[in-house]
Design a protein that fits this description.
The protein has 152 residues and is mainly α. The chain has a single domain, classed as Four Helix Bundle (Hemerythrin (Met), subunit A), CATH 1.20.120. Helices cover 68% and strands 5% of the residues. The protein has 6 helices and 2 strands; from the N terminus they run H-H-H-H-H-E-E-H. A hairpin with a 2-residue loop joins strand 1 and strand 2. Helix 1 packs parallel to helix 6. The protein is globular.
Length: 152
């Protein structure tokens, strides 16, 4: 497997394992902010899957077609909605939904031909490879995973 693809696939597998591990954490800890003025662990988890759905529905199907990409949602609005939803629903639902959607994303990524991973693509004003795009998302995941680990 192409090393770039292998890196991203491994990250998503580790991500899923990590989110699974949160099921054993006390709900009070999951609902505690990771810092002053910050989201709780469950709100962080709750914001992952809407963005995964966005990548699945509004990026992957369009990236290699030459068509214009659908407009991205307002970041703050989507994050606010997802954190509110995570605060209101049972934490088990948020964890399960995050795992399920990430598994869907992982499945799609595994199916993409290796030749596509290093093709330059245009996203807004940036030209980058699909791998570089996914690496940026991976780094975002890792930032939040480190926040969570420092809280539990």
């Amino acid at each position: 497997m192409l090393k770039e693809k292998a890196e991203i696939v491994a990250h998503h597998q580790n991500f899923i394992t990590f989110i699974h591990s949160l099921k054993s954490i006390n709900e009070n800890i999951l609902r505690k902010p990771v810092g002053e003025g910050k989201w709780s662990i469950i709100e962080i988890v709750g914001h992952f899957y809407p963005w995964d759905e966005f990548v699945l529905q509004q990026r992957i199907p369009y990236l290699f077609t030459g068509e214009d990409l659908p407009k991205a949602p307002n970041i703050d609005k989507l994050n606010d909605q997802s954190s509110l939803h995570a605060r209101k629903e049972p934490f088990e639902n948020t964890l399960e939904r995050c795992i399920h959607v990430r598994q869907e994303l992982l499945s799609q990524l595994k199916q993409l031909p290796e030749d596509d991973w290093l093709i330059p693509i245009q996203i807004n004003q940036s030209t980058l490879t699909f791998y570089e795009y996914l690496k940026g998302l991976m780094e975002h995941d890792l930032h939040h995973i480190n926040q969570i680990k420092s809280t539990i």
